Amino acid sequence: MIITGIICEYNPFHNGHAKQIAAVRQEFGANDGIVCLMSGNFVQRAAPAILDKSLRAEAAIRCGADLVLELPIPYALSSAEGFAAGGVAILSKFCHRLSFGAETANKETLLSLADALRAPDFSPALRSGLDEGLSFPAARQKALEKMGLDATLLHSPNNILAVEYCKAILSQNSALEPCPMKRDGSYHAEFPDVENPSATSLRTQLYEGTDISPYIPQSCCSLFQNAPLHSMDAAQRAILAKLRTMTDEEFAALPGGSEGLWRKLMHAARRCATVEEIATAVKSKRYTRTRIDRMILCAFLGITEEMRTSPVPYVRVLAFNDRGREILRSAREALDIANAGEPREGDYAALETRCGRLYGLFAEDTPALPNLEETRRVRYVN
């Protein structure tokens, strides 16, 4: 069986995601397999997923995917580069293609730009821009322009991730075939479009109590109806309690804290009253807000730079259908795969347990029970 992988978050799952799965099925045939490697209960934009991962995984299966695996949390809470590299490393072990959306869905263009990011003269040019005090995106653009390349493609969020997928495939000598698909609609649109809604707009609608049923597949409506919502604001006091009691050594161990950024965060945490004030105090022209937010969330969850760069020992399965069960058998030959809720030992298992217990504190209404992760079961959709 030929298997197409999709690295995703589905935060929340919507019509655009269902459209991608349907397009993959249409292009490659009804008998091919589709595997989604999905962020769990914490996502790359440095926030809790608005809906529990089991609900989002089942939604994907109901809408045409065959198997949903959980993207390990160290990859899910990484930069675009780490997010893509971690996902590609896992899917390369048993998949044949990688499908992803992009504003510029030209494979050769994306691969060419990805190759430029790996060129020997890119790193010195990037460092020069960073030393001038430019932010990483601005320094990257300047470096590519010095190399005679058009970097305007990297102004679009899906293009950035698409290039990182291609770069990971090249860097890892992966046999995955990159299959970009045109991503219609605006990634950051404030108001949802029925055919191509942005997840950003749908999260806003959910928090405001607005009905989002026109923007999600009908088969998912019952799944999401009355499901608990999660947000950073709900856990603000818990986050502050953690930040205010951290030692210097704990701040120094945070991922993304190089060049003294951890020290700046530490000082802000010890003088500011709210999480927003802390993030605002640390943010600068050089350091993006998302990087700061990831450091804060990693601090709360107890994720260190060592954890984020250490090999992940296994991947968990969240949901599947009958064809997904067949794919799972072949995947187990290449990967150590644990079922949702299956007990494991070791540092990574302890991190999973801790993150599972803390996710409930982000619930907007009543905090969830702390043993949710231990009682979780794989979702089977017939």
Topology:
Layout: E1 3-8, H1 15-28, E2 33-39, E3 42-43, E4 47-48, H2 53-62, E5 67-71, H3 73-76, H4 80-91, E6 97-102, H5 107-117, H6 122-131, H7 136-146, H8 157-171, E7 177-182, H9 199-207, H10 221-224, H11 236-245, H12 248-252, H13 261-269, H14 275-282, H15 289-301, H16 305-309, E8 315-320, H17 322-332, E9 337-339, H18 347-359, H19 372-375, E10 379-380
Parallel strand pairs: 1-2, 1-6, 2-5, 6-7, 8-9, 8-10
Antiparallel strand pairs: 3-4, 5-8
Describe this structure in words.
The chain has 382 residues and is α/β, with parallel strands linked by helices. It contains 19 helices and ten strands. The chain has helices at residues 15-28, 53-62, 73-76, 80-91, 107-117, 122-131, 136-146, 157-171, 199-207, 221-224, 236-245, 248-252, 261-269, 275-282, 289-301, 305-309, 322-332, 347-359, 372-375, and strands spanning 3-8, 33-39, 42-43, 47-48, 67-71, 97-102, 177-182, 315-320, 337-339, 379-380. Strand 3 and strand 4 form a beta hairpin. 42% of the residues are buried.
Brief overview:
With 382 residues, the chain is an alpha/beta fold. Helix content is 47%, strand content 12%.
**Nearest-integer average pLDDT:** 93
Count of helical regions: 19
Helix % is 40-55%
Structural class: alpha/beta
Q: Give the SSE string.
A: EHEEEHEHHEHHHHEHHHHHHHHEHEHHE
Strand content: 5-15%
> Which sheet architecture does the biggest sheet show?
8 strands, mixed
The low-pLDDT segments are: none
Overall radius of gyration: 20 Å
Gap between N and C termini: 20 Å
The geometry reads as globular
Compute the number of strand runs.
10
